[in-house]
Amino acid sequence: MDGRADTIEKQVLxxxxxxxxMANTSTAQFVNKVRxxxxxxxxxxxxxxxxxxxxxVIIDIVVRAISSYERSQEFARFSSKYDSWLQGKAQLSFMxxxxxxxxxxxxxxxxxxxHTLKKKNKNDKPLFTDFTYDNIGVPANSSNPYYKIPKKYNxxxxxxxxxxxxxxxxxxSGKFLGMFKVPSLRxxxxxxxxxxxxxxxxxxxxxEFYNSRDLESKWGKPEVPYNVNHNELGDLKLxxxxxxxxxxxxxxxxxxxENEK
Length: 261
Description:
single chain; 261 residues; mainly alpha; Cytochrome Bc1 Complex, Chain D, domain 2; 2 domains; 33% helix
């Protein structure tokens, strides 16, 4: 989400050795965990791996295996109610249909401006992201681990700040501070907590934040006060019914609907 990797392989590799994500402190520690796993013997046989192979071989195998799975049809099933509806095999309920209208309309949720339904090719499945980066003014999550932040980037003295795309050494301009990639909404019902720092626990809370961020002090100040998007969210003027309907529509993006029929 923060633009630190430009390939799936690089993205897979990052969390493996980030102590804040998977708690591995060295390559040796990680490789030892893999060698002790119940599936390791089968992998050795299938790939003809020798006990004398060095750690880099093991790491490469893990990265390639995870990357291959993430590219597979099992990982991206496109078997949601929304997909069945697109094919004319399912009907959306009143609330789901209303939520879809709120999602699309520029004078309502305007969600489709970033979580786009556009397709490059006729047979593509909508991914609900335009792959751009944005700072939507997410507040800090006080339960995250604390670490020191350079004072020049932290004038308000907050204990935890994630600068997203702006912390990448490739980004020299301050205009990227606080920006994170627009995520796909597919299976969003299953991926709580929400936002890059996990500050929100429910989908309804997320929509309420989008709706009233600029109106209600309860949301707190943005974690990164620079570059906040004030044009597309913060005061959407959605009703309680609109909010509930939007959540209902997003739940139609959960895979497995076809198997439940």
